[in-house]
Amino acid sequence: MSIFAPNGPMLVTGGTFINNARLKKRSNRHRRTIQESFNGHIALDATHDTNSADNSRCHPGTRTAVLQTLDDWAQNRSAEDSNPSHILWLFGPAQVGKSAIAGSFAAAQCKKRRLAASFFFPPKSRTSTNGYGFEKYLIPTIAFQMAFNIPELQPHIAQAVENNPMIFHQSAETQVEQLIIAPILFLGTSPAFRVPRTIIIDGLDKCGDQEAEKRVLAIIADTAPRLSGRIRFLIFSRPEPHITTTFNLPALKSITQSMDLTDDVNGFNDIRVFLKNGFKQFRAARGIKSDLSWPEEQSIELIVFQSRGSFGYARIALDLSQRVRAINKVPALIFFFLT
């Protein structure tokens, strides 16, 4: 029996007729529903690939060991495979490079199509002016990204907002249940999750207030085990007492792997690489070819030692020393500017 396609492409499988044009139209409708419904409810500058000034990247050749550890964890290739963690908490003090690592890792995961979503909290000084807030933006921004990073979720997320137009005015717990958990579970063992996808949250300590930050962790503690094998959570923050205490609670501690960035044995060498490359670029830009003795090796080592793993300190030292061409004065100058 011959089968003729009417005015357009048609796929025939096992006697079932599927009009490709109809499928495409339906897919476009889902995307349009999501774009229109989420408009005004997401933080446009909070993802790793937007124009936000906070979305920095690691200096080339640095933090390679840390990034590899994160990649192994994200793919369940870590040394703890026998008891895989749903959450990885990477913590460290200010200016140690957490956001740069988060941005670099998010970009790498996105390129490999393993990223579910990313959310970078801005500094608290900008929270009120930019209007970022946990309750209003975090969950919708993550769900919106997931709809486009994992297209298979689109019909289910679109259905969620159609069924509940009030979703963006409801609690974060309700939002995560209807916009993230239910759509993912509906897919079952979809090939979309052949490799776990990662949700990256940077700057949790900038969320707003301590109660909001603890609430984020409570939601993640409830969500992560339910999405085991599909979604993993990577969280970056300072080790604030209330955050540390929350991570030590049984509900989180049993499913979390912690990573102290100050324990990175390659941290000092990474800063050394950063400084040497910076001075090399400075000499090239200024046409300094014969003055290769500047800066002296011992001067660089002094900055490396005094940085104590802080890229912020190293960055200020590099900038000041280039301005004054007297690197031996840099420690005193940094003390003056930072006090």
TrEMBL record:
<dbReference type="InterPro" id="IPR027417">
    <property type="entry name" value="P-loop_NTPase"/>
</dbReference>
<dbReference type="InterPro" id="IPR056884">
    <property type="entry name" value="NPHP3-like_N"/>
</dbReference>
<feature type="domain" description="Nephrocystin 3-like N-terminal">
    <location>
        <begin position="79"/>
        <end position="238"/>
    </location>
</feature>
<keyword id="KW-0677">Repeat</keyword>
<dbReference type="Pfam" id="PF24883">
    <property type="entry name" value="NPHP3_N"/>
</dbReference>
<protein>
    <recommendedName>
        <fullName>Nephrocystin 3-like N-terminal domain-containing protein</fullName>
    </recommendedName>
</protein>
